[in-house]
Every structure is written in structure tokens, then in C-alpha cells.
Amino acid sequence: MTVDALPVPGPLLEARAIDRSYGRTPALRAASLAVTAGEILAIMGPSGSGKSTLLHCLAGIFSPDTGEVWFDGRRLDTLNDARRSELRRTAFGFVFQFGRLVPELTVADNVALPLLLGKVRRKQAYQRAAGWLRRLELDELGGRRTGELSGGQAQRVAIARALVTRPKVVFADEPTGALDSLTGEKVMDLLVGLARQEGTTVILVTHDPRVAACADREVMVRDGRITDPYAGEAVR
Ligand SMILES: Nc1ncnc2c1ncn2[C@@H]1O[C@H](COP(=O)(O)OP(=O)(O)OP(=O)(O)O)[C@@H](O)[C@H]1O
Question: Which residues form the ABC transporter domain (predicted)?
């Protein structure tokens, strides 16, 4: 093979001119964004500007009304619901503002759950979950119900649950929004440190410039359009 014939690595995840409205309220207008593998990207912008809608479209939770979403060389937005859920379960991990753990289950159960849903055998799922709990310094808490955790502990469990399947992309929507600043900083250090060790791409929605500073790159969403945070111009 000559050097000319080598494939050029493209973006891992890309939104191409996506529009999305809720009834008559436009949330995204021709928003375009390309994220490379291993990149840690912060999406910033005022309240109601379209950040969460963008994250949901990139993660295949919502489909845009027009435009395209590509993941790993495949069109994501036109996959049927079953294939999109399968992709989300195998290739993506999620960390939300309030953890969204299952409160009746233990910490270890919550972390093992994505593996069990992926048909990993029980013993192996719990071994892998235990490994992640150690990495997040949560091994003492494996038997505790998640409804009994502090906010910072719950977010560490959410990070373990997001990474346990070794996803290609972790989507984090205000992961430190419910935490005090010191705890938030620790949670971000853990998320970013582990993502870098694993080569995981992270797409992070945040209001907090200190959280965004942990990322490799920032984009700004204003009125449903993605702009360069410094130049204030639409990114193409
Ligand atoms: N379920 C919904 N029904 C109707 N309108 C919605 C819905 N969700 C979002 N919107 C509207 O779409 C626009 C973008 O909302 P979105 O939640 O994406 O913004 P955001 O930047 O994430 O906001 P915030 O920072 O406050 O969470 C806003 O005008 C919002 O009011």
C-alpha cells in the first residue's frame, strides 16, 4: 500500500447542519460540529441556547429534523430505534447532572448493570465493576444503595458506570452542576484523567468555565448555532 492509499482518519462524531425544533421553538439551527477520537470537548453557552438538544442529537437520543449525524463512519440519525439503542449501549456512556443511578440497587449493581444488559456473564460483570470501583476509590461502598450516597460519591459511581463498557464516547451533561466547587473539581479530574487513560472521547455540556478549562477545546452554542467562543463566528 502506498502512503497515498492510507485512509485519512476523519472525525469520530459529526453533526452536519442539524436543525431541531420543539413545536415552534427552534432549539438548533444548522449546527455543525466535528469531534475527533480521544478529544475532550466542552459545549458552553447561555441557558436555553440548545446545548442539551445538541448533546442528545449527537448521542442518538433525539433525531434532528434536518441535517445529519455521523458516528465512526456511519450515519447515526437514520438508524432505526433498536440499532440506535444498541449503539448507545455499546459505544456510548452517559454522565448526567444528578447521576441518574438506580436508587434501589447497590453501587456495585449499578456499575455492573450496563455489562449485564450487554449479556456479559454475572461473575465477570461484577469483577469488572469492582475494578472500576477501585479506580474511582469507591471499593468500600460497593454494597451501599446509591440513594444513600453523597453527590460527589454518586457522580463517581456514574463515571464508573459510564466507563465500564469501555465506550468510544462519554456524554456528560452538567456533570458537576449539583456539586460544590471542590467536589466538582475532583469529579472532573477523575473523569478527564480516566478518559485520557482509556482514550475515550468526552463531550461535556457545562456552564462552568472552570469545568470547560479541563477540555481540549470549547465551542459555544448561541441561539441554536455553534460559534467559536473567541471569535463569536459560526463554526463550519
Ligand atoms: N421538551 C421541550 N419542549 C419544548 N421546548 C423545549 C424542550 N426542551 C428544550 N426546549 C427549548 O429548546 C431550546 C433549547 O433548549 P436546551 O435544553 O437544548 O438548552 P440548554 O442550552 O441545554 O439550556 P440549559 O443550559 O438551561 O439546560 C430552549 O428554548 C428550550 O426552551
Answer: 13-234
Cell of 105: 440497587
Note the pTM of the prediction, 2 decimals: 0.91
On average, the pLDDT of the chain sits at 90
Name the residue with the closest Cα to ligand 1, atom 28.
48
User: What DSSP element (H or E) covers 13?
Assistant: strand 13-22
pLDDT band at 179 (very low <50, low <70, confident <90, very high): confident
* Closest C-alpha residue for ligand 1 atom 25: 47
Q: Is 53 in the pocket of ligand 1 (CB under 6 A)?
A: yes
Our answer on whether the CB atom of 52 is closer than 6 Å to any ligand 1 atom is: yes
Domains of the chain: 9-227 (3.40.50.300)
Q: 27: Cβ below 6 Å to ligand 1? A: yes
Cα gap 119→110, rounded to integer Å: 15
Task: Give the ipTM.
Answer: 0.97
CA of 51 to the centre of ligand 1 (A): 8
**What is the structure's pLDDT at 231?**
53
Ligand 1, atom 13: nearest CA belongs to which residue? 27
How many residues make up the chain in this entry? 236
